[in-house]
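Hi Y.,

Following your request, here is the sequence exactly as I used it, all 351 residues.
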Amino acid sequence: MNMGTPAGRSSGKGLFAHPEDLHCVLFQLFLVAGFALAFTMWNVWDSVPSLASYGHAGRNAFAVAAAMLLGWSSGINVGVNFHNHSHRKVFNAAWMNRWFGRFWTVSGGWPAYYWEHSHVTVHHAHLLESVDWTLPKRKANGEWESIYVYALAHWPFRYVAHLWDDAVSGRYGAKFGRKMAVEFAWFVAIWMIPPVVLGFDPLAVALLWLLPQWLANVAVMAPGMYAQHAGCSVKTADAPFGHSNTFVNRFFNLTMFNIGYHIEHHDHPSVHWSELPRFHETMKARYIDAGARVLPIGYYRGGQLLCRGEWVSSQRDLFFVQHADYVRPSNVVEAPAAPERSVVDVPVRAS
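Below is the corresponding structure, written out as C-alpha cells. Let me know if you'd prefer a different format.
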C-alpha cells in the first residue's frame, strides 16, 4: 500500500512509525470489541433470562441501536482513521501494515486496497477534476447534486462501477487488476467471519453487519466528503486554497483525528495527523491573506447545514460562517475622488 512520504516525528525502530498512531490502532481494536459484544448479545439473548424477558422485539431493538453506534464508529474508522494510515504507515513492519489494513476496513464495507486507491490515487491526485469520481457530480448548470443523492448513490453503486472500470481498463497497469482480485478475495474471506459467528441468521446479519456498513458510508463518510469540498473549485494561482474547507472546531478535531484541517491535509498529505493543528498555525497568515475558507464548526454541523439547504454549493460565496480570526482585512485604502473639472479647466497643449 502507498503510505506517502514520511514527515514529522517518526522512527524506524519499535512497533509504530509515529507514537501517536497507537490511538489509531486502539480505535480499531475497540471497534472490533464492540462488534464482538453485539454478536455475543444476539447469540445468548434467548439463553439469558434477564434478556429473554424482553423477547425478540427487545433483541431487535438492541440490534438496531447497536448498529447505529457501530455504523457511526465504522464510518470514522474507515473515513478518518484508516484514511490517515493510507497516507502514512502506522507500523514499521510492512507485513503488519498490509495485514492490519486488510482487517481495518472490513466493518465499513471496503477492501482496504480499494479504499486507498479511490482516496489517494483518484481523489488526492485529481482533486475536483472531472476524473475525481469520489466527489458529488455536477449538474448541467454547474451546481453540485444534492447531498442526499450523493450519499445514497456513491456507495456501493458508483464506487463499484468506477472501481471495476479502473480494474479492467488497464490505465493503472497490468498488475493493478490482478491486485484488485487478490485483495477482493481476502476481503470476502474476512467479511464472512461475522456471518459465521452469527450462525448465518439473516436478520442478525442484516441488522448487526450489513446495516452498520450502510450507515458508515451513507450517514458518516458521504456527508463528510461532501462538506470537505462543498462550494470549492480546482486549485489555481488566484485561489490556492479554494479546493477545500477547513473546520477548526476544537472538540470535533480532538475526537476525529484532526480531519477538519482539510486544506492542510490536501496540500501537505505527508504531515502526520497529530501535527496538523500546529502546522495550521504556521499557515494562518497565508490563509487569511488568500481568503481560505476556515469554519469554526465541525463536519456534523456542516452536514446539518447542507442537509437543510443552507449552503448553496454552486456559489463561491456559499452560506457559511467564516471564523472571526480568519476574516480577511481590507488592505486597500481608496484614494479620495478627484474634483470634477470642466473642459475649460483642462490645459491645452500647444501643437
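The CA atoms of residues 16 and 22 lie 7 Å apart.

Thanks again,
Q.
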